Amino acid sequence: MNRGFWYLHRAKATAWTEAGMKSEDELTGSISTEKGFGGYRVVAFEARFAQEMAKLIVSHGGEPLVAPAMAEVPLGQNVSAFDFAERLFRGELPVVVFLTGVGTRALFEVLETRYSRAQLVEALGKVTVVARGPKPVSALRGFSVPVTVAVPEPNTWHELLETMDASERCPALKGLTVAVQEYGVPNTELLQELKKRGAQVLQVPVYRWALPEDTRPVEQAIQRLIAGDCQVALFTNAMQVSHLFQLATQMGVTDPLRDAMSHVVVGSVGPLCSLALRELGVPVDFEPHHPKMGQLVAEAAQQAHKLLAQKSTRGNGGFVTAAVFREEADKTGATNWDKLESSAFLRACRRLPTDFTPIWLMRQAGRYMPEYREIRAKNSFLELCKNSDLAAEVTVTAAHRLGVDAAIIFADILLIVEPMGLGLRFEKGDGPSIDGMIRTHADVARLREVEPEESLSYVFDAIRKTRAGLRSDIPLIGFAGAPFTLASYIVEGGASKNYRHTKALMYGEPAAWHAMMASIARSLVKYLNGQIAAGAQAVQLFDSWVGCLSPDDYRDFVLPYTRQVIEGVKPGVPVINFSTGTSSYLEIVSSAGGDVIGIDWRVDLGEAWSRIGFDKGIQGNLDPLLLFADPTTIKARALRLLEKTAGRPGYIFNLGHGILPETPVDNVLTLVDAVHEFSRK
Ligand code: CP3
Fold first, then answer.
1. For residues 487 and 565, is the Cβ–Cβ distance under 8 A?
2. Non-local CB neighbours of 667 within 8 Å, separated by 6+ positions
3. Pseudo-torsion of CA 313, 316, 318, 320, nearest 10°?
4. 3-class secondary structure, 598
């Protein structure tokens, strides 16, 4: 029996000589074991090869603590799966929903112990088969099962239901029994929604692995990790991760365990296992070069001392080791929409009352933060934007560190100019510069419309990763430059003082101007909706430089295009329409659209809101330079702004423009705390 708890001292290693055990050479391969763990306590959760794992750790100089975290469930014990098949054959299940690829395969594996594949395929061929995303689709194709309805990205239960409701190929659900394949945690929201539509739901769970009968060894391992009694933790599959945290949740020690795990060297056998760890907020320190148990232990032994030393010097707040928190582990990977919808930020966007005033800050992830500078020292700004892992980490770390109520994706308004066919560079001290400026009708003609799914897919990847790493009550804001501000960059070739070339084109070649703005607007609609599909809950348009225009010119040359973009954004997703320098014609800016109007500091908040109308939300207004004042002044000014809102719902605290690079981080923290404290009801 492999159940039990192995806590071995080196001397006991020779005890593991049971028949059937793999030889040490076979397990370790040819990796050198010279350096070794040097007496470190190494915790591992392997079940099937628990004894071999213990011995491997010993042979590399470690003290093993092997607590098997799972037990195999015999296929034949999956009663619900067999019940499902019987009812399917009797024609009682007109609609079958497949949620996951792994689960679909597991279900077939179970059913094929009793029925032939042909029998199953024939029965499924007669009913409506719904697949939640590409993974179940490809699993079903592998079994030659025709898919009636495939759900588009991001494949949450929202899209699932929307697609089922809209599809002519899916019958009305009222009075029908819908079977839902499950693997892991049931999706309660989906089940409820199906029931609301009058369907009976048959849940079809498949179990391949369960918690071990005796959970005490894992519980003891958790306690010892929390007590700081282990230096290395090794995971050989994703299910161990989920079981470990399932037990920690039962013990009420999820946070202490997560914290403890950020102080030990965490080794993961491969990408799926690493994903499970990261989703639970556990940083992974390494994966072996080959996803094998022997290799994992051998490479852990080689690197443990170096990695542990790095972890303790970098500290907990460092970017690279920063734990990516997730309050609740949602094993299906689905976004917790209810929690997001009830967040203070999204409620304020919809002008609903909140318990406190939400705050986030434009440019909250940037050079003023030492963590950002550290990571930026090793990558150019564009490399950072294009590396979705790093971009996600920058956003998540800044949002969690500051304690703000929304995160903004790490990107730049100018990224879109590359797929338009122009060159983009960020040079030290000079700001952005764009090659191949647009100055004439001929130039406009060569401007490409952007297909963001191809050319800006890295932004969408970063959004998916950011969403997965953010706390489930923190909305993620997508963004883009507004048409005028983008136009000003591509016409001038960079920043500008008086927008000479921009205005020359506008006044001199109005037809070219309008063609350019229309093209930009079409690209922006696709880009913003792509961001939303990837996981952004709201979007902001930055019209940073539009304040250089007169009210008439704004109305004639800009408003139609900003409006076109805002109207093109997926309905129901809040849009923040931000501009600076537009105090004198805020009403016109606001008429371009947006659920929330972002303002700078050159106008009084109360006055601005009454001019925009209280049927819109409002954001911003604190002068970014106030963050250079002393804490008492910062607090007093925050309070003064809050008073100007007269307690009306729909105000989002923010600066009037981005945080400056030299801003002291402590002052930002002072501001965030003050806003929360003063506004809490
Ligand atoms: O927290 C966040 O808001 C991060 C995401 C973000 C960046 N740029 C990252 C960035 C956002 C929302 C922007 C928007 C942006 N970019 C705007 C609109 C907002 C505004 O401030 O008006 C504009 C005009 C740009 C264009 C741009 N990008 C400028 C003018 C600069 C500064 C150039 C410089 O050297 O100071 C950038 C670079 C940039 N964008 C940085 C960051 C973190 C700094 C790059 C670095 O690390 O060197």
1. no
2. 627, 628, 629, 631, 634
3. 90
4. strand
State the pTM of this model.
0.58
Q: Mean pLDDT over residues 190-206, rounded?
A: 93
Q: Residue 363 C-alpha to ligand 1 middle, in angstroms?
A: 7
Which among 22, 227, 199 is positioned nearest to 97, based on CA atoms? 199
Q: Which atom of ligand 1 is found nearest the CA of 412?
A: 8
Tell me how crowded residue 141 is: count the other CB atoms within 10 A of its CB.
Answer: 12
Interval 569-583 mean pLDDT? 96
Residue 338 is among the residues annotated as catalytic for this protein: no
Q: Which atom of ligand 1 is least distant from the CA of 372?
A: 47
Cβ burial of 514 (10 Å; 0-12, 13-18, 19+) is middle
Give nearest CA residue, ligand 1 atom 2: 363
Q: Could you give the CA distance from residue 543 to residue 52 in angstroms, rounded to a whole number?
A: 62
Q: Select the more confidently predicted residue: 251 or 563.
A: 563
Residue type for position 582: T
Has 640 been annotated as catalytic? no
For residues 137-154, give the mean pLDDT.
Answer: 93
Q: Is 217 within 8 Å of 140 (Cβ atoms)?
A: no
Residues 390-438 pLDDT 10s = 999 999 999 999 999 999 999 999 999 999 999 999 988 778 999 989 9
What was the pLDDT predicted at 315? Answer: 36
Q: Residue type at 521?
A: A
pLDDT of residue 312: 66
pLDDT for 120: 97
405, 413, 433, 545: which to mutate for ligand 1, most atoms within 8 A of CB? 413
Integer angstrom CA distances of residue 13 from 2, 96, 299, 391: 16, 52, 20, 45
Q: Which of 278, 351, 376, 439 is catalytic?
A: 376
Query: 182 pLDDT band (50/70/90 cuts)?
Result: confident
Atom 33 of ligand 1, residue of closest alpha carbon: 431
Which residues are CB-contacts of 545 (< 8 A; sequence separation ≥ 6)?
484, 485, 488, 496, 499, 580, 581
How far is residue 248 CA from its own chain's centroid? Answer: 24
For residue 443, the CA-to-ligand 1 centroid distance in Å is 26
Name the residue of 362, 363, 393 whose CB sits within 8 Å of the most ligand 1 atoms, as the mutation to test its pocket: 363
Q: Is 372 marked active-site? A: no
Q: Which atom of ligand 1 is nearest to the CA of 363?
A: 3
* Annotated catalytic residue, options 489, 554, 561, 651: 489
Six token digits for residue 174: 């009222």
Contact indicator for 187, 99 with CB cutoff of 8 Å:
yes
Contact 97, 157 (CB under 8 A): no
pLDDT band at residue 316 under the 50/70/90 scheme? very low
How many angstroms is it from 526 CA to the middle of ligand 1? Answer: 22
Question: pLDDT (tens digit, 9 = 90+) per residue, 82-109?
Answer: 999 999 999 999 999 999 888 899 999 9
